[in-house]
């Protein structure tokens, strides 16, 4: 089993890929597993640049094949200067926890008419002895609403205020059957292919 470091502390990101990679003979190790936490300035202008910063720092520290990942949030109804972009969790210089994020974004929805149309743009970078490879993809056209679902997905708090139009359900409440249909939007199979081909 090939060990690969995922440069994240987000449990939802790890959960999303861990089992699928295990089936391909890849064991996903996290920075929590290694008890290493570097102080990294995520100063990139987009998801790919931040993914590069994280992957490079942890690859140089551990000399293990490393995956860096970041995501940017764009909201159709907001002006460019008000876009969360790379600062989805960092608001006015403060790093928000999951519940604070739900509160902040539901207030943003209330201030802008009660429903917002959003898009995630993802960036992933693999650093290994084979070199540096990058991959980007997007998931769009879902809505944020003002009433949060009681269910939570630790690490992905906005799933609790996201409505998936195809199912008219909260993202956090999708069934396994729904998720299979929705998986194409998440590009999970493409992401797994990208990782396995570049290690």
What coarse outline follows from CA principal-axis ratios?
A: globular
Beta-strand fraction estimate: 25-35%
Q: Main beta sheet, described?
A: 7 strands, mixed
Radius of gyration: 17 Å
> Pairing-aware structural class of the strands and helices?
alpha+beta
Q: What's the overall average pLDDT, rounded? A: 93
N-end to C-end Cα span: 12 Å
User: What helical percentage do the residues reach?
Assistant: 25-40%
Order of helices and strands: EHEHHEEEHEEEEHH
Total beta strands: 9
Low-pLDDT ranges? none
Structure description:
The protein is an alpha+beta fold and 199 residues long. The chain contains six helices and nine strands, in the order E-H-E-H-H-E-E-E-H-E-E-E-E-H-H. 26% of the residues are buried. Strand 6 (115-128) and strand 7 (131-145) form a beta hairpin. The model has no long low-confidence stretch (mean pLDDT 93). The chain is globular, with a radius of gyration of 17 Å.
Which features would summarize this protein structure in a list?
199 residues; seven-stranded mixed β-sheet; two-stranded antiparallel sheet; globular
Task: Describe the protein's topology.
Blueprint: E1 2-6, H1 11-22, E2 26-30, H2 31-34, H3 47-62, E3 66-75, E4 90-91, E5 94-95, H4 98-111, E6 115-128, E7 131-145, E8 162-164, E9 169-170, H5 176-186, H6 188-197
Parallel strand pairs: 1-2, 1-3
Antiparallel strand pairs: 3-6, 4-5, 6-7, 7-8, 8-9
Helix pairs in contact: 1-6
């Amino acid at each position: 089993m090939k060990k690969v470091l995922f440069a994240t502390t987000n449990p939802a990101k790890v959960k999303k890929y861990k089992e699928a990679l295990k089936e391909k003979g890849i064991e996903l190790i996290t920075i929590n597993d290694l008890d290493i936490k570097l102080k990294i300035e995520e100063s990139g202008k987009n998801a790919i640049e931040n993914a590069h910063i994280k992957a490079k720092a942890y690859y140089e520290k551990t000399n293990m094949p490393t995956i860096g990942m970041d995501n940017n949030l764009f909201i159709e109804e907001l002006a460019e200067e008000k876009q969360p972009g790379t600062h989805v969790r960092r608001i006015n210089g403060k790093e928000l926890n999951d519940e604070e994020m739900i509160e902040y974004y539901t207030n943003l929805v209330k201030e802008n008419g009660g429903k917002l149309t959003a898009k995630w743009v993802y960036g992933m970078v693999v650093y290994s002895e084979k070199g540096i490879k990058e991959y980007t993809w997007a998931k769009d056209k879902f809505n944020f609403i003002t009433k949060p679902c009681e269910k939570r997905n630790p690490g992905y708090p906005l799933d609790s205020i996201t409505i998936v139009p195809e199912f008219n359900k909260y993202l956090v409440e999708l069934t396994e059957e729904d998720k299979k249909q929705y998986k194409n939007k998440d590009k999970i199979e493409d992401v797994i292919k990208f990782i396995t081909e570049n290690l």
